[in-house]
Design brief:
Strand order of the largest sheet: 1-2
Helix content: over 70%
Number of helices: 13
Radius of gyration: 20 Å
Structural class: mainly alpha
Number of strands: 2
Order of helices and strands: HHHHHHHHEEHHHHH
């Protein structure tokens, strides 16, 4: 029996599944590189400012690419496409808002509970192999994070919410947006991100609130050292900052297209498992940029995530064989 039971739409061919796996792997590779670059020099931006600049750059590149290829960026099912874009926008907001208060490893581990969310949202329920794949993935993510004993950081709830929003976006893509082109999905996402980031930035500036370095606590505010990124308004930028924003926009454009293609080509739970390869790529960039050498628990976690991906792939091949 395959890893996912039920009455889904007609199963895609194995070649489509393979293309979906390759697309999501490329997407998370570039996304992890983008996040590493943000970590290197992101303190020069505010959250809304960074999202606005990189989304505008990405939207411009995607629109230009569509024009060159002679394709339209107009979605067929605008309502579902917009729901997908809003879900991803909420994901970015929650995840980046959590980062100042969490280690990158813990935030990523919370975020990559997404496969479990996806399994719960899927029409098909996992069988034993499917649950084993999910369990190994989550266990591997926990080992990568290696959280210390103690109370769970409240900001971890934001990272968990980001996982939920991402799973929702992936489910919408698979169920409702499979006929949309990846370019149209990516363009709508970045236009939506640009609009929301612009409104947020304008709100901060017009209100005249100096929220950088402040955190709401009960009925008052207290200073904190690491809240500036999430709550800062517009910050002056040097030439290299504009260049970095353009590079991040180019990476986001490629990521948006790759992720949209992946969730159109293969079932959400399968892509969700391979999506967790972000953790391995993040460790790679940690070694390259920050000389962070992963410990034995982290390496074991990556191995478990890979094993979970193999189990999911084996189940998917069985599904395809039965469908044929």
């Amino acid at each position: 029996m395959g890893a996912w039971h039920g009455s889904p739409p007609p199963s895609p061919q194995p070649s489509a599944r393979l293309r979906g796996i390759l697309a999501i792997t490329l997407g998370v590779l570039l996304l992890s590189l983008s996040d590493a670059l943000v970590k290197l020099s992101g303190e020069r931006f505010g959250l809304a400012q960074l999202m606005l600049l990189r989304s505008l750059a990405a939207a411009g590149l995607i629109a230009a690419g569509l024009r060159v290829l002679g394709r339209t960026g107009r979605p067929r099912r605008r309502g579902w496409v917009r729901a997908r874009s809003l879900s991803l926008a909420a994901m970015w907001l929650c995840y980046y808002a959590a980062l100042p208060s969490l280690s990158l490893a813990l935030a990523a581990a919370c975020y990559y509970t997404a496969p479990a969310w996806m399994a719960l949202m899927a029409r098909r329920r996992p069988d034993r192999r499917g649950w084993a794949a999910i369990g190994l993935t989550l266990l591997g993510a926990g080992l990568v994070a290696n959280p210390q004993a103690g109370a769970l950081e409240p900001a971890a709830l934001l990272a968990l919410a980001a996982a939920g929003f991402y799973a929702l976006a992936g489910t919408i893509t698979w169920r409702r947006c499979r006929e949309e082109s990846p370019g149209a999905l990516a363009l709508d996402l970045n236009l939506c991100l640009s609009l929301l980031a612009g409104l947020g930035l304008a709100g901060l500036e017009l209100a005249g609130l100096e929220l950088a370095g402040l955190e709401l606590t009960g009925l008052g505010l207290r200073p904190v050292a690491d809240a500036g990124f999430a709550l800062a308004g517009w910050r002056p930028l040097a030439l290299e900052d504009w260049a970095l924003a353009g590079l991040l926009g180019a990476l986001l454009a490629l990521v948006a297209v790759a992720v949209a293609a992946a969730y159109r080509l293969a079932p959400t739970p399968l892509i969700g498992v391979f999506d967790t390869s972000y953790l391995g790529f993040a460790m790679l960039w940690g070694v390259v940029f920050f000389a962070e050498i992963p410990g034995p628990h982290a390496l074991l976690g990556i191995a478990l995530i890979g094993l979970g991906a193999l189990l999911a792939t084996r189940g998917s091949r069985a599904d395809a064989a039965q469908a044929g």
